[in-house]
Design a protein that fits this description.
Strand order of the largest sheet: 3-2-1-4-5-6-7
Low-confidence stretches: 2-7
Structural class: alpha/beta
Strand content: 15-25%
Number of helices: 15
Radius of gyration: 21 Å
Helix content: 40-55%
């Protein structure tokens, strides 16, 4: 184990899904800051410059309980300076069982806002896991508040994923054809992609000449059902299923669009919202506490969950007043330049790691 300040690279061991774009980005950012990075994962995918150790597959939630011994042995063999688990109710549990400190845990949203609601046992286990951490991060204030209910002993800090402002940047509004709409969320039940499709159908009826077209990125288990819904609504020519794209592909799609939509039932700070704002787009999102941190209700940007009528009305308002939509998008870009850069967030996280290793991480007044 390298001593803080020694010439050897400090070793950060991430526990998380290696096939997740967020874990991959986190690993890359810390590599760029001089950390040696390893990943312990049940869902492998190669990451350049990162040593990876693969756990037995996880097919059911209960399988996480059965991976504790393997995770503990693997982490002990790696002997990192810091263990950092992404997603409290899976990898966070494994980190807690490793018995090695310091441990950092990052909540992603559903692990705190949804999973513990399933049973009293899961609520207890969530609290037990959080109380084993030495530092806890979350990407929105409401997520941090939700974790305080479990009375963790570690400091809590807001660190969000941020956006790469160089890659996700605005394009010339006047060169964008029609009224193209981007949806970057996964095709899973929580993200209500069907609501977006139904809203598009309503918009197409009221603004048939607007050239409305929906771009669905992300991919997921609901693809077949969504394609069937698009066919049943007669929208085949107005919806493009892109699936999972890399950053360059995502940016290219967004630069052709005039609005981005993100309407999950539950969410913390959404990277797709931040990246859309970085591209100079107005965003329509679910009226959730995390979205209120970034979007103004007075702009018509916040709508109730599961309401295609409200979503269609918000889209129609911006379709009919593109000057206002463009102005909101420009303001969103300025907000990201001031507060949303990934570099700023990852610099802050690397500094927290250093403070943790030195043993001088102060507690905030709200902890």
């Amino acid at each position: 184990m390298a001593e803080p300040g020694s010439t050897g690279a400090r070793h950060l061991c991430l526990l998380g899904d290696a096939n997740s774009v967020h874990v991959r980005r986190w690993a890359g950012e810390m590599l760029a800051r001089g950390w040696r990075v390893s990943v312990v994962t049940a869902r492998p995918e190669p990451i350049d410059g990162v040593e990876q150790r693969v756990l037995a597959p996880v097919r059911h939630s209960a399988d996480w309980l059965l991976r504790a011994n393997q995770a503990r042995e693997t982490v002990a063999e790696l002997a990192p300076d810091i263990v950092h688990a992404h997603y409290v109710t899976s990898y966070g549990y494994l980190a807690a069982r490793c018995g090695q400190h310091p441990i950092v845990m990052t909540a992603w949203g559903s692990d705190i806002l949804l999973t513990p609601r399933r049973s009293a046992l899961l609520r207890w286990l969530t609290g037990w896991t959080l109380r084993r951490a030495d530092l806890i991060t979350g990407d929105s204030l409401d997520l941090l508040d939700a974790m305080r209910v479990y009375r963790p002993t570690a400091p809590l800090r807001q660190i969000h994923w941020g956006a790469d402002l160089a890659r996700f940047s605005p394009s010339a509004w006047d060169l964008k054809p029609g009224f193209q709409i981007a949806s970057l969320r996964s095709w899973e039940p929580n993200y209500s992609i069907d609501v977006i499709v139904r809203a598009l159908a309503l918009l197409a009826r009221t603004r048939s000449g607007a050239g409305a077209h929906l771009h669905l990125l992300g991919g997921g288990s609901q693809e077949e059902a969504l394609r069937a819904l698009v066919r049943s609504l007669g929208l085949d020519g107005q919806v493009t299923f892109h699936g999972r794209l890399d950053d360059a592909g995502m940016s290219a799609v967004m630069q052709a669009c005039k609005v981005s939509v993100s309407v999950p039932v539950s969410d913390a700070t959404s990277v797709s919202v931040l990246e859309s704002m970085a591209c100079g787009l107005p965003v329509v999102a679910t009226d959730l506490p995390a979205n209120r941190q970034w979007l103004e209700a007075g702009d018509g940007a916040l709508v109730p969950a599961g309401d295609p009528l409200a979503l269609a009305a918000a889209l129609q308002a911006w379709c009919e007043d593109e000057d206002r939509a463009r102005c909101i998008g420009e303001r969103n870009r300025r907000r990201m330049e001031a507060e949303g850069a990934r570099k700023v967030q990852m610099d802050a996280m690397s500094s927290l790691y250093d403070q943790l290793l030195r043993g001088d991480l102060p507690r905030a007044a709200s902890d």
